[in-house]
Amino acid sequence: MTMPSPPRHNGGPPLEEDDDPAGWRLWCWRRAKRRAWKAPGPEIVQRRLARAEELGMTYREYTLEILERGRHL
Q1: CB-CB contact of 59 with 52 (8 Å)
Q2: For a Cys staple, 52 with which of 7, 36, 37, 62, CB 3.0–4.6 Å?
Q3: Domain annotation covers residue 30
Q4: How far is 38 from 7, CA to CA, in rounded Å?
Q5: pLDDT tier, 39 (very low <50, low <70, confident <90, very high otherwise)
Q6: Is the confidence at residue 2, as pLDDT, over 70?
Q7: pTM recorded for the entire structure
Q8: Is the pLDDT score of 1 beyond 60?
Q9: Is-contact 45 60, C-beta < 8 A?
């Protein structure tokens, strides 16, 4: 029996291999990741790429910062 997550815990993907790989939570995390990294429109990509170059970052690093923090740098 697993312990419930503490309050304010995001219930992220399992860290142990013995967890059920077809579990609901893992499915939700994979789906959210797929949707988060879905390619945006070309105008948004160009804007992000230009800003990433200004900051000396790659496009992927810049996009990851946006996804992690929920705001643009």
Answers
A1: yes
A2: 62
A3: no
A4: 30
A5: confident
A6: no
A7: 0.52
A8: no
A9: no
Q: What are the tens digits of pLDDT across the range 8-24?
A: 667 676 566 665 666 77
Query: Half-sphere exposure of 17 toward its Cβ, with a 13 Å CA cutoff?
Result: 0
Total domains in the fold of the chain:
1
Residue 25 domain flag:
no
Own/partner contacts of 43-47, CB < 8 Å, gap of 24 or more, are none
Report how far apart, in Å, the C-alpha atoms of 66 and of each of 14, 25, 71 are: 24, 23, 5
CA dihedral 18, 23, 26, 32 (to 10 degrees): 170
Could you identify the residue written with the tokens 């967890």?
A: 19
Decide if 68 is inside a domain: yes
What are the tokens at 9? 């815990």
Tell me if 64 is assigned to some domain.
yes
8 A C-beta contact, residue 56 and residue 47: no
